[in-house]
Design goal:
Blueprint lengths: L9 E8 L3 H13 L4 E5 L3 H12 L9 E4 L8 E6 L15 H17 L5 E4 L4 H12 L6 E3 L3 H15 L6 E2 L2 E2 L7 E2 L5 E2 L2 E2 H7 L5 H23 L4 H15 L4 E3 L2 E5 L5 E6 L2 E4 L2 E5 L6 H20 L3
Parallel strand pairs: 1-2, 1-4, 2-3, 4-5, 5-6
Antiparallel strand pairs: 7-10, 8-9, 10-11, 12-15, 13-14, 15-16
Helix pairs in contact: 1-2, 1-8, 3-4, 5-7
């Protein structure tokens, strides 16, 4: 952000657009984080926004001071981050890509409103399919590329770390591995670059008594990819995990951490992919996405990544975006 743009900029303000399961859980997670002193909730159903704001505000005495209220689009003017969760819910038996038409239509009503307010902060897209909608948000908002990012595969990556931690009986925070590509059915576990505290993954597995590497990798990747479908089958929606992922991304932005997170951002020729937002490791700080981080991929992983990108590109073409 340019210095001359900061006069009416509140670095401690967040706006959440969409107060469904994900939006409400995100608001609750951000309230507990202590990152912000002001939080505006916007929803097409203003009563819903007011109800969530009241409910979450009643927990503030147990947390750090933050003003939470139902707002409108004028509130985005001075916000540091706008979190865009508005969209149709993924239903049982429905893929994230099935949501495309409905959620693109919703974005076409929201993004012009943000654009009119001369928004100076970071736009964080969370609604699904997040990679496609991040591309759509970039085109409709007119914002610089670094300032528009999606939650990408940050949650999928956390799920992978969790599964590996369980498999190896080790703290998942010591696992370094990424899910890349589409946040969806064509996502890729980047096994080539995976390690545990610097120790190559297969070697660490053998240290812990696991020798059937291919079988274990296929099972874990499958469980990670299908976890959202399983949760939706059991409880109709997923929201706590993604809310915590959003909190983590906001943390990296507000604190200018330069953290490496697998957010969705625009690709320009990396791995032969161009003009598409895709979930890849990137350095995230106060200006949004600083740069993508090249990770080691083998030939098969690179091929799968390009196939994942091709699927999303075709969907965008079909929807004339």
């Amino acid at each position: 952000m340019q210095k001359d743009c900061l006069e009416n900029f509140n670095a401690r303000k967040v706006v959440i657009i969409g107060c469904g399961f994900v939006g409400a859980a995100t608001a609750f997670s951000l309230m507990q984080s202590g990152l912000f002193s002001e939080m505006a909730l916007i929803d097409a159903n203003r009563d819903k926004a007011q109800g969530e704001a009241m409910d979450i505000s009643h927990g503030v005495p147990f947390a750090k001071p933050v003003k939470i209220y139902a707002g409108d689009y004028d509130d985005v003017k001075d916000a540091a981050i706008v979190v865009l969760t508005a969209g149709a819910n993924q239903k049982e038996g429905e893929t994230r890509l099935d949501l495309v038409k409905k959620n693109i239509a919703i974005f076409k009503s929201i993004l012009p409103e943000i654009k009119k307010r001369d928004f100076r902060g970071i736009l964080l897209v969370v609604a699904n399919p997040v990679d496609i909608l991040t591309t759509v948000a970039l085109k409709l908002s007119g914002l610089e590329e670094n300032r528009v990012l999606g939650s990408g595969t940050v949650l999928d990556t956390a799920r992978l770390k969790h599964e590996l931690g369980e498999h190896l009986n080790v703290d998942p925070r010591s696992v370094h591995a990424f899910i890349i590509g589409e946040h969806g059915d064509s996502e890729i576990a980047a096994w080539s670059s995976a390690n545990v505290s610097g120790i190559e993954l297969n070697r660490f597995c053998e240290m812990r008594g696991h020798f059937h590497h291919e079988e274990a990798m296929q099972r874990i990747a499958r469980d990670v990819k299908n976890s959202a479908y399983e949760i939706i089958t059991k409880k109709k929606a997923t929201y706590f995990g993604i809310a915590m992922a959003v909190k983590r991304i906001c943390e990296a932005i507000v604190r200018d951490e330069k953290s490496i997170l697998s957010v969705s951002s625009m690709m320009h020729g990396q791995y032969g992919i161009d003009g598409l937002s895709l979930s890849m490791p990137a350095i995230v700080g106060k200006s949004g996405v600083e740069t993508l981080v090249p990770i080691k991929l083998n030939e098969e992983e690179t091929k799968k990544l390009c196939s994942s990108a091709a699927v999303l590109t075709e969907i965008l073409k079909q929807n004339e975006i």
